[in-house]
User: Fold this.
Amino acid sequence: MTQTMAIFFATSLVVLATLIPTYIISKRSAVSEDDWAVADRSLPIYVVIGTQFASAMGGGILVGHLGNAYLNGVAILIYGFLMALPFFFVMIPAKWLRQNNFTTVPEILRHFSNNSKFVGILAAIMTIFVPFGWITSQITAFGSIYSTITGVNYNLLCIVFTFVSLLFVMPAGLKTVAWTDFIFSCFMILMCIVSVIYVTNMGGGLQNILNNIDPDMISMSGSIKKLGAGTVLLWVFSVMPGGVTNQLYFQRVCAIKEEKEIPASLAISAFLAFLSFVWAVYMGMSISTMNTELAQNTATGWFMSQLPLPLLAAFAALVFAVMMSTVSSGAQSVVVNITRDILAVIKPDISSDKMLKLSRTLSLVTMVVAVLMCLVFTDTLTWLVATYAFSAATLLCPIYVGYIYRNKKFITTQGLIASMIAGCVGCAVAMVLKTTINYAVMGIAASFVALMVVSALTKGKATKNEE
Assistant:
């Protein structure tokens, strides 16, 4: 069997082994719009943990962060910490979210604004940025990796990957996505363990790897120096705030069956997310002791080229599983924002059946737009970071300050609108001017000031948007 055939065979097995049980689960009862949006709020804790972990891991860890660790060392764990930290921030309003049966971030902000349609639609647009960025970045990464290891055309791979992604979303939205992610996450954990064992053997054992690592790479200060303090600051002010406002995490909190299990689900998800970065750092630094001539984004590919054919095929299937889970989660999240927070707000009398049909149609439209963008723009990393920054700048203060003041009647509809607009404008201006202070921070600061000042000035006054 050729390498290409082995890779596609292993990947097909993973697809079938995941699709079949999730289709069976989705067919146990008639699919409703609530199934699509929030899995009918019936997910067991282990599925919630699995889908949170699978969504957070993403292809960036397999390729980008592993390659970053290959060049710079243990400082990449800072990124991992910043990726895990948002789970604890989400824990603050988590029980309140579940008790109020929220589904999306815009629903939360409509609650704070007396059901303002404008606030809901504006919040929906800003919420879509991050998951859509995830979709395009994963499609691009998949096409690049698989074209390298199989020789198949990049454009064709992106199109096929997008089509297969739809199979995981179409049956029942979040219900099938969550169960798919759970199965994927089990496979991810198994393959990560196998790859650690193999790379350790390749490197001549743990002690030999430690003896051959550049001392700066295993020293936090030395690693930060190699990486650059500016890069670390960019992570602090974009990754963590962007994660705190990531709707995917909120949705899974709202979908869990038992409210009392929410803190445990978030804490375990955070631990697993951070552990995935520990894996990436160990893999990257181990590879650096065996080959010092690689470019950052080729470290994963080089490791795969050293594997025997069965392991290579299995690792390629791991790449597929990781990226597929992120794409399907992102697509489902984007579609829920469009249907529930834009279309249903504009036309509230849409029936549940029609909403379900619209959700499936919009899933197709979303993926078509995403793959077309990936065929034109192959470098999505820069604007992916920008989506994190703009999402944080526009949504962080309205969500969390709004939650803090939820019982004090201080935050107003005008304040929320001003906060989101100021955050977006402040972020954009700082980006264009290339200010010394990170543009996400400038946007968040502008958003906070606008929220507090405008709310204070308009407190107690009715608005046309309030219903």
